[in-house]
Amino acid sequence: MHYCKYNSEYIPLLRYINILQRTGMPGPLGLPIIGHLHILNPEAPYLSLHAWTNLYGKVFKIRFGSVPCVVISDVDVLKKVFSQEESTGRAPLYLTHGIMQGNGLICSEGPTWQEQRIDQNLGTECGVEVCQLLEKKLSAEGGIIDPAEILGHCIGNAMNKLIFGITYKEDCKVWIWLQDLREKGIRMMGVSNVVNFLPWFRFFPYNVRNMRWIKMGQVESHLEYERVIREREIRLEEGEEPECITDFYLQEVQKRNKAGLNLNSFTRNQLYHLQADMFGAGTDTTVTSILWNLLILSSEGQNDLQKRIHDELDNGRQDQTQVSLLRAATLEVSRLRPVTPLGVPHGALASLQVGDWRVNKGTMLLPNHWSINRDPSVWKNPEKFDETRFLDPTVAFKIFPFQTGKRRCIGADPARDIIEGVLSHILKVYHVELEPDVDPWHDPRHGFTLEPQKFRVKFTKRVTTVKN
Ligand code: HEM
């Protein structure tokens, strides 16, 4: 779709219609049918919403095609809204309600979502494997490499262990195919984005082909999941203890069958979707977070910070009442480079209060983390990287990389463990240095997540500086 660079406020006729449209909540001028899609920057929608936050305030309305949306850029309003049961729906998009048909965890609502949202202890450890593979690649290719592939494999395997109780070898054909399928699926979901808001777009031949491809991919990956599920069922029948999400799910089904209870949403199809959701939601987000941290920590501007982190890793924390330097740095990275700058939108299941306004059932509720994280009334010099602001343990609660409230990310704890575990393993062993002439803040890519451009890092083995 053509993207109009100019804010429609400048066009007099449209401005007049805008005044007519303003019946309560503020917001930019929209057009019939497409709403605000024509003035939304498709490469960086968070920048359009940030500019509108400055113009219309911390709660404003827009329309994505036929979907009405309220954008929330206020910490307190967001916390209050997302703590309510009425806000735990998903936005009425073709992706969630059409393609996924409300299956799995990410796209489900109401009783199915409540039943499927079982918080398990999801702890995992993969820093050692990352370092082993880095070592292997460094000795084969020399000191300067792109770490993305190694991280994709190791974090993907950490998710495999967590969800399916298995890991794949790097060169396993099934694993390469599954990763490829996920990568292409994410790209297609991205290009098919507009289908979510303009349902008739899905009948265009290009989109028909994409949708068919996505559905085929689903069917094929579910066949592989079924193979793994059968293996897990045999293990459990032989009396082994449950050790992954699939096992816990199968155990719940078994319990219900034994007790003669209704299975409700605990179906095979639901299990496939849950497995895919956990894998999809957990892998890219975690890999991208680690990449942002590596990119920024290895840049010249953060040389001193890296030295201080090395010192803390070697000698321990000086002040136990403060947050560790590494954690403070990861929090500051996720403030300025949130992996999901616009989070994952919710949908209003019933009418509800958002700040000073009453919002109708069916409205999309969009958390604007990009603006929250650089709100000048909360953050001094918001555009400046300064990890020391997070040394105070209470400050962490002012950003929400995993969102907030009843539907908060189910993988927040393992994600944090993996990110800090992998980074501390790498930084204990290596000094990292970004390749020359790369600006770490330049031009992030916005797709499924906000990613850095491809970059390479020089890894140099370091001598530890343990003080007696
Ligand atoms: C840095 C890493 C991660 C980030 C930034 C992240 C971010 C998010 C966000 C913003 C949401 C939306 C929450 C909401 O709708 O209110 C979400 C949901 C979700 N995340 Fe994560 N996530 C990460 C890692 C993980 C991991 C490791 C897993 C799996 C082990 C995971 C599984 C999920 C699932 C299943 C949902 C859907 C929850 C629901 O709809 O009830 N995420 N995540």
TrEMBL record:
Superkingdom of origin organism: Eukaryota
PANTHER family tied to this protein: CYTOCHROME P450 306A1, CYTOCHROME P450 508A4-RELATED
Keyword Iron: yes
GO biological process: organic acid metabolic process; xenobiotic metabolic process
Protein name (record): CYP306A1
Cellular component, GO annotation: cytoplasm
A GO molecular-function annotation: oxidoreductase activity, acting on paired donors, with incorporation or reduction of molecular oxygen, reduced flavin or flavoprotein as one donor, and incorporation of one atom of oxygen
Organism encoding this protein: Eurytemora affinis
InterPro entries: Cyt_P450, Cyt_P450_E_grp-I, Cyt_P450_sf, Cytochrome_P450_fam2
Assigned protein family: Belongs to the cytochrome P450 family.
Cofactor list: heme
The keyword Secreted is assigned to this record: no
A Pfam family per the record: p450
Residues the entry annotates as binding heme: C409
Keyword annotations: Heme, Iron, Metal-binding, Monooxygenase, Oxidoreductase
